[in-house]
Amino acid sequence: MKGAGRRRGGATVVQWNKLAKMAPTKSNRKAGAKPAPLRKSTRTKAGAKPPSNPNDKENRPADTNGRESLLQEAETDDVHEQNWWAINVEKAAALIEKCMKEYGWDRAETKRILASYRHFLILKKEHEDWDESKLFPCWPVFSMWEEHRGMDDYSTDMRDLLGHVLSFGRRIAVEERQRLIAATREALKERFGSYDAELWDDISIDVQNQLGDIDTGDVNRRTPLSNIMDAYCQELREVEDQYIKMSEEDIEKLQFVFNGKLIKRDDTCIRLGIEDGAEIRAIHPDKVAVTIRFSSGNKRLILADMTTMISKAFEECDLDFGEERSKNVFLYGQRRVYGFESPLALEMNVRGNVIDVVDIESHKSENCMCCNPGGAAGATGDSSDDH
Questions:
Q1: Using CB atoms within 10 A of its CB, is residue 30 exposed (0-12), middle (13-18) or buried (19+)?
Q2: What phi, psi does 64 have (nearest 5°)?
Q3: 87 pLDDT more than 50
Q4: Strands 335-337 and 255-258
């Protein structure tokens, strides 16, 4: 397979992550526009309140430039504590409900993600990272950020919280994104003493196909497993080995299984109980994996259609023995295989099937009653299968 990877048990191990493709934010505010000046009345009525102070937060004018200067003096030790995203206020509740509906998170889980989102935005402000060049969120926080961005008053919220509208959706390569996430974790530890590791840290999972090849990659516990499936299928499209290369039709039919249960596209590791180092399997429902084992010790792994003659799989994998075929016997267990049988007729499993290629003379001597009485007795007991 293409791409940098590790080796495990002789099988190629490939990283999943692909380029992040996100649409950038388009601000509907004109660059360079100046905020409207304050107007002060020169007349007062009896009993009227004195003119308001423009520096009071509730009297600050709307900013039409997409930016707003923050007050120099913080009203509390952490000015963010007074803003809309305290978990029990109406504005944050709307975002919580939106994320729960979109991603199927429960309320407690969504509040945890909101707390991490809040910390992430604080870092963005303090590091003045307006263009995604210094920090990047983990997948759950990114998803909440994306949902927030889709709300009508996102730009106003960002000005209220940070004094700046953040850039969103820059095309970031895998390596850079991982570096930025690692930098963000370190920044969270430095600023807040710790971070929510269950949200921010990825886990490593393996995907094993029917031929025994293992690919591995890192994934967030809450990332939909459709990301893993799609990345794995893309790797298969790039395979150059003609013996294991799959057609587009076959790739589309692949199923992914964990603990015997079919994985749905919107399933996540946390929902299925997939832990670090776990294995999921990629299976084609209409094919079986067969190992052709030669007397020389060589082996060849092939995928065979469940209902097609096994000889067809031999031909497709360049195993047409020609004249030599008549000099060999093919055995599936103790059962002789002539080539016209299908894997279904041979009662083969999805994987783990072995067909031995044995010299016909050796096979005859092993089953001759004179030369090998014990073998002949065993063969006689299995003769009903040799049709």
A1: exposed
A2: -95, 5
A3: no
A4: unpaired
Instruction: Please tell me which of 59-73, 170-184, 235-249, 256-270 the model is most confident about, judged by mean pLDDT.
Output: 256-270
* Residue of 239, 279, 232, 206 lying closest to 17 (CA atoms): 232
Which residues are 356's β-sheet partners? 293, 331
Secondary structure letter of residue 323 according to DSSP: G
Residue 248 predicted with pLDDT over 50: yes
For the chain, how long is the longest CA-to-CA vector? 128
Non-local CB neighbours of 333 within 8 Å, separated by 6+ positions: none
Pick from 156, 155, 163, 165: which is nearest to 131 by CA? Answer: 165
Distance CA 246, CA 211 (A): 12
Distance of alpha carbon 100 from alpha carbon 43, whole angstroms: 52
Phi, psi (rounded to 5 degrees) for 369 = -65, -30
The CA distance from 26 to 180, in Å, is 23
The per-residue pLDDT for range 290-307, each reduced to its tens digit, is: 888 887 788 888 888 889
DSSP string for residues in 255-270: EEEETTEEPPTT--HH
Q: What angle do CA 18, 24, 28 make, to 5 degrees?
A: 170
Please give the Cα distance from 265 to 244 (Å, whole number). 25
* Contact assessment for residue 253 and residue 320, using Cβ atoms and an 8 Å cutoff: no
